[in-house]
Specification:
Layout lengths: L1 E4 L6 E4 L2 E4 L2 E4 L4 H6 L6 E7 L5 E6 L4 E7 L2 E7 L9 E6 L3 E5 L3 E7 L4 E7 L8 E2 L20 H4 L4 H8 L1
Antiparallel strand pairs: 1-2, 2-10, 3-4, 5-12, 6-11, 6-13, 7-10, 7-12, 8-9, 8-11
């Protein structure tokens, strides 16, 4: 496991070692001790399967830390700092495959777009699910996220999230 800091404080890009074998490959996706060293005690592991490319979810910032990694397919991840402070609204994007993971601390929004069909995405979290979250519009021009595909499928709920400016005003 190789860990790199990103431009958003607390967000870590993690390179996982994938071992090819005669049948395909093997990777250690989760190791309790290694994640505990990052300050994350995993309490829940969620898996989401997406049949098509171009499915977009997010931008959501929940009250828990997240460890994200595809176990099949590829995703484009857009991470947005939604915590109060100087970094509010900062965006960083990543393309993630099976040898990649992201550690996203609480208060930082995460979103993704499936780049391939039959994508399976793992979400490890350090708190049990609750409905509490902060969300921002996937297509907010201020964020200027360059989604990699023209044909996107998303929920109306995600498209109807407030703009970054509306969040700013709510917090003022």
């Amino acid at each position: 496991m190789r860990i790199e800091e990103t431009g958003i404080p607390g967000v870590l890009r993690i390179q996982l070692e994938v071992q090819p074998n005669d049948d395909g490959w093997f990777k250690e996706n989760f190791h309790h001790g290694k994640l505990a060293e990052l300050g994350m005690e995993v309490v829940q592991h969620n898996v989401a399967y997406f049949e098509a490319a171009g499915i977009v979810r997010g931008i959501h910032a929940e009250p828990w830390d997240k460890y994200l990694s595809p176990s099949s397919g590829r995703v484009f991840a857009a991470i947005v700092d939604l915590r109060s402070g100087d970094g509010f609204g900062q965006v960083e994007t990543f393309e993630l495959g099976t040898s990649d993971a992201l550690y996203v601390p609480r208060g930082v929004g995460n979103s993704f777009c499936t780049l391939t069909s039959h994508t399976t995405y793992n979400f490890l979290v350090n708190e049990h699910w609750s409905p509490e979250r902060v969300a921002v519009d996937l297509f907010d021009p201020e964020l200027a996220i360059a989604w990699p595909l023209e044909q996107l499928k998303y929920t109306e709920r995600d498209a109807g999230n407030p703009s970054l400016e509306e969040l700013r005003r709510q917090r003022a």
